[in-house]
Specification:
The complex is a heterodimer of chains A (747) and B (154). By secondary structure, chain A is of the alpha+beta class. Chain A has 21 helices and 29 strands. The N terminus of chain A is likely disordered. Chain B is globular, with a radius of gyration of 15 Å. Classes of the chains: A alpha+beta (747), B alpha+beta (154). The structure holds FE2/S2 (inorganic) cluster (2 copies).
Chain lengths: 747, 154
């Protein structure tokens, strides 16, 4: 039997959230009564905040931004499963920004944080930052790979509640008892074969109270979930008809672009727009204080004119060169640790008891480089502001835009079209806010503000540069001690400060994601985090801190394996198997997939494992020398996501996350000179292409007891797996990313 | 000054300076937003269209230099009546965010017009200029093979 879920209409979402996460947190009381944000058209009944049942069909309001991860289709499938209808027959819309869509998994802190922990293995610390930040971000965020974790029960309960209510409406109409009715293909069906479509029953269903409890379909009865169901957005995205933010068109709309101070966070001393104003198509050059906007009749004309504006910028509020920034980050290691996780044993004693392996690693700042550059369209009329922007946190964008426009939040509406890639970049509201600032100076006129690629790349919230000093001891082929000291600017602190105005002191656990909680049974293990106070804007980059910690952790595990004279995969397996069986199983699986034991001659292979966002991922990368340089020939991924709702989608997310990580590891770096980012466009910050990407195979396991994230966990192990493969091929250990500094890749 | 342009079989008179790239004529002037802006310097392929049946980067062709009929993704097929290659894209469930896919499809369509049965190396070679930040290359390759098969079978 399915699980019984209880709720009442008034507390519907609160109730389901409590069921889904067992959550209890500070802003609970405030969220108790949640207004329904949907105002359905006449004749359509809103059964609950996730569904509109109308005469012409069922619309699922998927409360998560679609940025390529297939989230809307899978959330819709959760509803469709309970409604006994093909998900493809549902219409999927992105929900309006409203608190009912708050992300419970994100709110509960790092909901997946202690998942691998066997009791007593790790020591938790009070964590002021990770309590405040999710609250600050509580607003309908698509991030942290939490969408499915959060929606898994809510969406199914929504579907089941709708089904039961429609059945009751149908029972009255058909004169049959509710228990005798079935639901099939979007209709309520009587035993004698008579049927009424959901749409036909919508009006009557709306008048009924929702049931007090519903039974969810047991997993064994699933017809759509757990299968490779097609995505709802494929046709639109294959015919050029999917609307992204950049594709917005409104009557009388103007096309604008911006040039904001390239010394991030600084302002503008002066500007001269006289040449620009005389250029064709230019209507206005606006003073934004920290930069300018050109409003024109065509985006390209606006971009040309923006280049022609002569601007004197202020100095950067941070050290102006990469060398100086790296020095400041490394210097944090000499200060006091922000957090020390003594995961096991006595590291100091263990380090004194044997020959110590030491290594220092360094990774650069990275840009997101979403395929669609930042943009937003804004229209201020009659005291109301409409914004169209691909954002991962629309309520935050709304509140920020309201502030700069001098409006109440209720007078601002944020519409979320498809996102041309997010990767964390679009959690920041800056593009929406900038468009609002332009709109305020152009009252009555809709303006699309399109950033150039150069503006996008040089005005990111970057993955921070980071440094790690590692020490370890091996004995009898095993790791005996593992000591990591990791320094980077704090993403949590900066983003919390941006959102709520201050960054609370205290331990920053997020900074150590991907280093702590790794299910390695090492007798003496300690992870220390150090926060560097550097004002270069940093933000959430696919897998966040795990993107550097995965590299540090797994490169060093590889070095320890080498020092121990052990096979690097066997070495990991021996340490992991006693701690966490699902993690050991992904390692065993990737060993089988890659035929690890029978490495072909002439290739290098590397393995890495990272637990992040509640998902265990092991990856093997294979490299080979060629006359043109080193090629990435093959990659194998085994992951365990707990429950796989759409396996194909999970495979493609893992594959994409691997390519994203490998692209960064091979050639990605953001460097600074004169306080300005030196990379401007793809030739300076390229990514794997079809001819340089490896062949990738993915297997999805479901041994873990809880559902994990899908969009991010494939990234962290990709970088160390590649570095380890290059070591295997060449005998050269690269401890600094990008790897193109140390190796010649075939391009 | 105005320029004559044939796009997806429809004639247009466009009153814009001759140096405006075709990309921004299509997107802003004609409202054909299926063709995307990714880099503006010929480095990503998001803006790929056909001119005289050849794949070209629309961000690199000035309005004044357009020397033949233009086909954009909208002219290849529609949601109601997708072209064979678009059906192959559906079958292989290629897109993730989808932003690069118009360009990928236009590039692939021109490859298949020249070479109805490309092997993996030929596909990799033809598609190397089209970036996909979501990393859908495997599905793109599969879709091109699928499209070739569908075309062979008529
Ligand atoms: S926009 Fe034309 S190649 Fe990138
Ligand atoms: S599908 Fe997102 S960039 Fe290709």
């Amino acid at each position: 039997m399915g699980r019984i879920a209880r709720y009442t209409r008034r507390t519907f979402l609160v109730g389901t959230a409590a069921l889904a996460g067992g959550v209890a947190f500070g802003i609970w009381e405030k969220l108790r009564v949640l207004p329904n944000p949907l105002k359905p058209e006449e004749g359509a009944a809103t059964l609950n905040p996730y569904l509109i049942v109308g005469a012409d069909g069922i619309t699922v309001i998927a409360p998560r931004a679609e940025m390529g991860q297939g989230v809307q289709s899978t959330l819709a499938a959760l509803v469709a499963e309970e409604l006994d209808m093909d998900p493809v027959s549902l219409t999927v819309l992105h929900g309006p920004p409203a608190q009912v869509y708050y992300n419970g998994a994100l709110l509960s802190g790092h909901a997946t944080y202690r998942d691998t922990a066997t009791p007593g293995l790790f020591e938790a610390a009070a964590d002021a930052l990770s309590e405040i930040m999710p609250k600050a971000l509580s607003l309908q965020v698509t991030g942290g790979s939490t969408s499915m974790v959060d929606g898994f029960e809510k969406m199914r309960i929504a579907g089941a509640a709708a089904r039961e209510t429609l059945k009751r409406a149908g029972a009255a109409r058909l004169g049959v008892g509710v228990d005798a009715l079935q639901t099939r293909d979007g209709a309520v069906v009587a035993p004698d074969g008579r049927k009424l479509s959901y749409g036909a029953l919508a009006g009557e269903a709306a008048a009924l109270d929702l049931p007090k409890s519903v039974e969810l379909r047991p997993q064994s009865a699933w017809k759509y979930l757990g299968r490779d169901t097609p995505r709802a957005d494929t046709l639109a995205k294959s015919t050029g008809t999917a609307r992204f933010g950049a594709d917005m068109r409104l009557p009388g709309m103007r096309f604008a672009t911006v040039r904001i101070c390239p010394r991030l966070g600084a302002g503008m001393v002066s500007f001269d727009a006289s040449a620009a104003e005389a250029m064709p198509g230019v209507e206005k050059v606006l003073d934004l204080g920290d930069g300018i906007a050109v409003v024109a009749t065509n985006t390209w004309l606006a971009m040309q004119a923006a280049e022609a504006v002569e601007i004197v910028w202020e100095e950067a509020p941070y050290p102006p060169t990469t060398e100086a920034l790296e020095r400041d980050i490394a210097a944090a290691l000499d200060g006091k640790a922000n957090t020390v996780f003594r995961e096991s044993g006595d590291v100091a004693a263990a380090l004194g008891s044997g020959e110590v392996v030491r290594a220092e690693y360094r990774v650069p700042y990275l840009a997101h480089a979403t395929m669609e550059p930042m943009n937003a369209t804004a229209w201020l009329r009659d005291g109301a502001l409409d914004i169209w922007c691909g954002v991962q946190a629309p309520l935050l964008a709304r509140d920020r835009a309201a502030k700069v426009a001098g409006l109440k939040a209720g007078d601002v509406t944020v519409h979320v079209p498809f996102l041309g890639g997010g990767f964390g970049r679009r959690t920041e509201p800056d593009a929406a806010v900038l468009a609002a600032r332009v709109a305020v100076q152009m009252p009555g006129v809709p303006v699309k503000v399109m950033w150039s690629r150069e503006e996008d790349m040089t005005h990111d919230f970057y993955r921070p540069g980071a440094v790690a000093r590692m020490a370890g001891v091996v004995r009898d082929g095993r790791a005996e001690a593992f000591d990591a000291h990791i320094a980077a600017p704090s993403v949590s602190r900066q983003s919390t400060a941006r959102i709520v105005g201050f960054a609370p002191p205290g331990p920053d656990k997020l900074h150590l994601d991907g280093a702590i909680d790794q299910p390695y049974g090492i007798a003496n293990k300690r992870i220390s985090g150090y926060l560097a106070d550097v004002a270069v804007p940093v933000g959430f980059w696919r897998s966040v801190a795990a993107s550097f910690n995965g590299f540090f952790h797994e490169s060093f595990i590889d070095e320890l394996a080498h020092a121990a004279g052990a096979d690097p995969l066997r070495f990991r397996l021996d340490l992991i198997a006693p701690v966490h069986a699902p993690s050991a199983q992904v390692l065993e699986t990737v060993a089988r997939m890659s035929d690890w034991a029978n490495k072909p001659p002439g290739v290098g292979r590397g393995v890495a494992f990272t637990w992040s966002f509640g998902t265990a991922v092991a990856e093997v990368i294979e490299v080979r020398d060629s006359p043109d340089g080193i090629r990435l020939t093959n990659a194998w991924i085994a992951c365990d996501v707990g429950t796989a709702l759409n396996p194909r989608n999970i495979r493609t997310q893992m594959q994409g996350a691997l390519i994203y990580g490998l692209s960064a590891a091979m050639g990605g770096e953001i460097t600074f000179d004169g306080g300005e980012v030196e990379q401007a466009n793809f030739p300076d910050y390229d990514a794997l292409r079809m001819n340089t990407a490896p062949r990738i195979e993915v297997e999805v396991l479901q041994n873990n007891v809880r559902m994990g994230g899908v969009g991010e966990p494939g990234t962290p192990p990709s970088m160390p797996a590649l570095a380890n493969a290059l070591f295997d091929l060449t005998g050269k250990r690269a401890r600094v990313l990008p790897l193109s500094r140390s190796f010649d890749f075939a391009l | 000054m105005s320029f004559f342009l044939s796009v997806n079989g429809t004639p247009h008179d466009v009153a814009l300076p001759e140096e405006v790239p075709l990309l921004w004529v299509l997107r802003d002037e004609l409202g054909l937003t299926g063709t995307k802006y990714g880099c503006g310097i010929g480095a990503c392929g998001a803006c790929t269209v056909h001119i005289n049946g050849e794949a070209r980067r629309a961000c690199q062709v000035a309005l004044g230099d357009v020397d033949g009929p233009v086909t954009t993704i909208e002219g290849l097929g529609t949601p109601e009546n997708p072209a064979i290659i678009q059906r192959a894209w559906l079958a292989s469930q290629v897109p993730q965010c989808g932003y690069c896919q118009s360009g990928q499809i236009m590039q692939a369509a021109s490859l298949l017009a020249r070479n109805p049965n490309p092997d993996d190396a030929e596909i990799d070679d033809a598609m190397a200029g089209n970036l996909c930040r979501c990393g859908t290359y495997k599905q793109i390759r599969a879709a091109i093979h699928e499209a070739a098969r569908l075309m062979r079978e008529g």
